[in-house]
Amino acid sequence: MGKVEAGIPEDDPRNPAVIADLVGDNVGDCAGRGADLFESTAAENIGAMILGSTLALRVQAANATSATFVISVMLFPLVVRAFGLIASIIGILTVKAKEDEDPMQALNRGYWTTAVLAAIGFVAGTYWLLQFPGSPDAWWHYAIAGLIGIATSIAFVYITQYYTEYRFRPVKAIAAASVTGPATNIISGFAVAMECTALPAFTIGVAIITSYDLGKSAVPGGGLFGTAVATMGMLGTAAYILAMDTFGPITDNAGGIIEMSKQPEEIRRKTDRLDAVGNTTKALTKGYAVGSAALAAFLLFSAYMDEIGLYTNTSFATVDIAKPEIFVAALLGAMLIFWFCSLAINAVQKAAVSVIKEVRRQFSEDAGILAGTSRPNYARCVDIVTVGALKEMVAPGLLAVGMPIAVGLVFRLLGLGAEAVAAFLMVATITGILVALMLNNGGGAWDNAKKFIEMGEYGGKGSFAHKAGVVGDTVGDPFKDTAGPSLHVLIKLLSTVTLVLAPLFI
Fold this sequence. Notes:
The chain has 506 residues and is mainly alpha-helical. It is built from 17 helices and no strands. It has one domain (2-505).
């Protein structure tokens, strides 16, 4: 509304929606992502403690050892998580950027410090607490699994930077495509979004297979615990990643304040650069969260299979997708992801339309707003998006909880409830991971393509390419700030719902 229709800067105080924009950055990328990653770490701690205690009890029974060993295995997730928190604090304290230095380099140095310290703590924790009786080499197998998890998090950080930083090919390609208009900007951006699923998928695949094999070779039946340890390794640097995430809205809001207070253009250029780095850090946090969710979802899926086997007293280890009913259940799992995204994106669209109408109304009814003599009604736009966010998220929430239950109960009538839900969960998880990566990185790339143009490329601010970049950024916002992060929650919610309600499907 401001940049394209009214021709005023992004954070101009004459725009009635400017405060809602700044508030939205805080609740989405600080509070929302904080809750998201906290849930990830809490769920992984509990999952690893359950898997570890089950494995330890089995080893204890086979070797007739004391219960002290079982307790040490259960304490292991909490101890290594504590090491990760200490490492993150030290890493944050080491971040110092020079005046002429790329801010991303300073953040990366701090991240490397955190990762190295977390790795040292992880190895120490495994040596101290995972001394399995009868398997003296088990601890270092699990230490390597944890290091694989840390390496996976590093890989996700750099893959995301490549696809969302303006210094690299993908974002530059989107900016170049903006010269010929919004349509080519959208086409190029969507191509980048789809491309960026490949490297993370390979990375997740290598992490799951290697950590599982390491766990299996360490202790008989310890494969799943190996994957759990890798997931804990990946989440070992979560506190630092979350700090990088909040860097984004802080710099974005600082830029807004500088624009509103009419600071010199030189200062605005500095905050624009910081904001571009913030877009990258926000994107890598979402990619990091999806990667950890992928590892966690594999654990929860395996736990569901084990639970069904326990209730039915059978070896429930395979899902036969060649059966028509099971194939249909899997198809419904893939469809759920797209339906859920549609509801989330449409919720943003509805709220956005309401805000646009409100801003147009205020501009038309009070000419003094654009003249700078009247104060816009900022609270009205904040109220619109707050009410819209709460109301429009009811349907996606009900769909996420209700769909797996409905699939299980309907296919139970055909005698295939548990297997159908397994296929549904498996395909929904795989599809959700890939779509979330596409939406998160695609949205970040669109945003930074616009920032790249604003730095003076292809005509700079106000040019035809810039207007096309604004359109692409507007499309990318519900991708990276609503649907993509919501899928991370959906993936784990589906696993939790099916695990808790498994007896209903038998």
